[in-house]
Structure formats: structure tokens, C-alpha cells
Amino acid sequence: MTTFWFIVIAFLWTGYFVLEGFDFGVGALLPVLSRGPAERRQVLGTIGPVWDGNEVWLISAVGAMFAAFPAWYSGLMSEFYLAMVLIVAGLIVRGVGLEWRGKVRSGKEVALCDAGIVTGSVLVAFLWGAIFGNLLFGTGLATMLGGALSLSLSVLHGAVFVALKTDGAVRARARLAALLASVGTLPVAVAGLSALPSGVDSAPLWGVAGAAMAALAAGVALVWRRREGWAFAATASAIALATASLFGALYPAPLPGLTVAEMASAPYTLTVLTWIGLVALPGVIAYQSWTYWVFRKRLTRV
């Protein structure tokens, strides 16, 4: 059961990074992709119906860690206390900006909301990568590399999403932004790949990481060919595979000196959690799938 719940938590974090990844990218690129109030509304409209639902994956991942592996949860929160506080602050500032932007009237208040969206998106995207980079490698350089990789992937993913969901000048700028972002993302991804542990036992891990690199390169090529739908699928696959390789490298000791078996809750607790998950998780997936289907069309400038 401990391995099963480690896989479940890895799946929840993967869903969060894939879905919130483009949210963060859209927020970070807001001043780059838009020219004027109408285009800013168009850009933010791409994530308006889904951004808060995407954060359900974070709540689910953290909640599952707390219930299934309380020692992992407490160790992570205490070791990265300052970073976690900044992440919470960034999420609050970003959420307030997204919610209040359509309710305020003065230009200064709108600009303040936009600044909160951009700052919160950049900060949170960077810090999640920094935290997991430090967990995996434990060095200052790797921490910065993890943050840079997370942020650059989010920017690329977000640019592709905007290109997929808009038309006109915003779509053209988003395509260009994706191509420019790839110039920084690909070298950082290669550096992250080279930092993975080597050895015979690491062969499957390298295979997954290599598949992530291939998906990332395919996404860039597809953007060049104006195939935004397939490009988005490729960048989403790249993030999912990169997250899988991350958790594969963390297993079986997500924290130094502690294995998942040592950090796990009692078997009865894990059994109860399994039944709860079997009921709740399909509902979350079904609801979000329906939401994306309803809001699947491109947005025009309004």
C-alpha cells in the first residue's frame, strides 16, 4: 500500500504541474502577449474558467501526503518553510488579482491586479521547481536549476496554451513567445537531465527523462508548424514525464534517510484512504474534463 500511495501522490503532483503549469505561464506572459485592455482580457480569459479548478490538484496532493505519509508532509513543510510561505503568498496574490481584476474600475487598480498575477505566477512556478530540485539533489546550484526548469517549462507550456486558445495578434505573439521560450527551456532541460543519477538501476529513469526531452523537442517543432493542439499535448507530456522521472528518482526515500515505508501511516489508514480516493478522484477528473470540454473553443478579442 505504501508504494501504491506514493504512485497516487506522484500522479496528483503530475496533474497539478501539467494543469497549473500553463496557468503560471499565461500569468507570467500577460504583459508580453497583450497590448491594451481587450487583449489582456483575451489572454486571461484562456485560464479564467479553469485556473481555480486546477488548484484542486495541489490541495489533493498535499492532503494525500498529509494523510498517507505524515512524516514526509511535516519534513517537507518544515525544511522548506520559507519557500512554502512564499508559495502560499504568491497563490493568494495571484488569486486575488484574477478574481478582482474584473470587478475594479480604475486603471491603477487593474494594473495592481495584473502585477499580482504576474508576480504570483513567476514566484510560485520558480519555487516549486526549486523545492523539488533541492529534494532531489540537495545543492544550491541544483535548487536554482530546478526553479529555472520549472519556470521555463511553465512559460513555454503557457505560451502554447494561449496560441491554442486565441486568434489574431495574440495567437501570433504566443507562437513567437513559445519559440523564444524554447531557446532557454531546452538547454535548461538538458542540464537537468544530465544531473540525474547514473548507473544500471537508473536506466528506466533515464528512459522516462529522455522521453520527456523528446516530447519537449516535438512540442517546439509542432509550434513551428502551427499545430498548436498537438504542441500543447507534447508540452503537457513533457511535464508529465519530467515529473514522473522526478518522483522515480525520489523513490524509495523522498526525504534523506527516510523511506516511504518508514514515513507511511498505519495500514488501516491507507486502506480507508484508498476507498476515499476511489470515490473522489474519478469525480475530480470527470468534472475537470467536462469543464475543459465546455470551454474548448478559441477566444476572440472582446
From TrEMBL:
InterPro entries: Cyt-d_oxidase_su2. One of its GO terms (molecular function) is oxidoreductase activity, acting on diphenols and related substances as donors, oxygen as acceptor. It holds the Pfam family Cyt_bd_oxida_II. Keywords: Cell membrane, Electron transport, Heme, Iron, Membrane, Metal-binding, Transmembrane, Transmembrane helix, Transport. It comes from the Bacteria. One of its GO terms (biological process) is aerobic electron transport chain. It is found in: Cell membrane. The chain crosses the membrane at residues 6-33, 80-98, 110-131, 137-164, 176-197, 203-224, 231-252, 272-295. GO terms for cellular component: cytochrome complex; plasma membrane. It is a multi-pass membrane protein. Belongs to the cytochrome ubiquinol oxidase subunit 2 family. This is Cytochrome c oxidase assembly protein. It comes from Acrocarpospora macrocephala.
